[in-house]
Structures are given as structure tokens and as C-alpha cells.
Amino acid sequence: MKYRFSFEKGNDGYNKIILPEEIKLIEYVFEDMESFGEPIFQSFVEKVVNKDSNYEGVSGNICSLEINRDFTTVSTEFFTSEMVDECKIETDELMLLILAWIDENKEQLQLN
Predict the structure, then answer these.
(1) Its domain of life (predicted)?
(2) pLDDT for res 111
(3) Where are the extended beta strands (E) located within 1-112?
(4) What pLDDT does 77 receive?
(5) Phi, psi (deg, nearest 5) at residue 32
(6) What does the alpha-carbon distance between residue 54 and residue 8 come to, in Å, rounded to a whole number?
(7) What is the pairing mode between strands 15-18 and 55-59?
(8) CA angle at residue 84 from 95 to 6, to 5 degrees?
(9) Given this model, what pLDDT does residue 112 score?
(10) What is the pLDDT of residue 84?
């Protein structure tokens, strides 16, 4: 895995992923999944990683993902500040982070 990360217990019961500054924006992907109570982006990323699709686009409450074979662009738009933020991450690395997050939050997600 390219990026170092850790987990921190959140007030909502989830173990929150803590990422390095260069990909800090990616933490919103996990906040979105927490708000839905499931790994909503996993299947979209898997389709591209498994080469079932060349591109997938999906949005949650906080962020949008443009998933390509090499890189995924995660963007957020905060209407109060009228600011759009973007971050790119290798799609394989995003998949590994999602799997680590799922593993760390199995009990909360009730996944086996």
C-alpha cells in the first residue's frame, strides 16, 4: 500500500480513517459511506479495478467520484464557501483503503 493511514474511534461508533495531507480530501469518501451505513462506493470502484468497466461516476452526500482505470478523482463542493476541492488517487489504492475501512468497521456495518 502506497499511503500510510490510521484509524481513530469516532463519536458515531465508526473507526474513522486518517489519511496523509496529500490525500486528506479522500476522507470525505469514508464520511459519505458512514452516513449511508454501507460502503456505497465499493462496487463502483471494483467494476473499474476488475476491468468490467473503464469508467464509473458516482456521487454521495459529500463527494463525487470519477473512477478511471489509473486514477480516481474525488471532488467536493461546499456551497457555503462556493469552493470546489479535488484530489486524485490511484484507483487501486482507493480500493485498498476502502477494503481496510470495511475490515475496520465490520461490526458497525454488520458485514461478515
Answers:
(1) Bacteria
(2) 52
(3) 6-9, 15-18, 55-59, 63-68, 71-78, 83-90
(4) 74
(5) -60, -45
(6) 34
(7) unpaired
(8) 35
(9) 39
(10) 59
Going from N- to C-terminal start, the domains of the chain cover 6-109
User: Among 19, 36, 21, 37, which Cα is nearest to 100's?
Assistant: 19
* CA 44 to each of CA 11, 12, 18, 65, 94: distance values in angstroms, whole numbers, following the listed order: 28, 25, 22, 9, 11
C-alpha cell at 83: 469552493
Contacts of 30 (CB under 8 A, 6+ apart): 16, 17, 97, 101
Distance between CA atoms of residues 97 and 12, nearest Å: 20
Q: Is the pTM of this model over 0.85?
A: yes
87 three-class SS: strand
Tell me how far apart the terminal alpha carbons of the chain are, to the nearest angstrom: 23
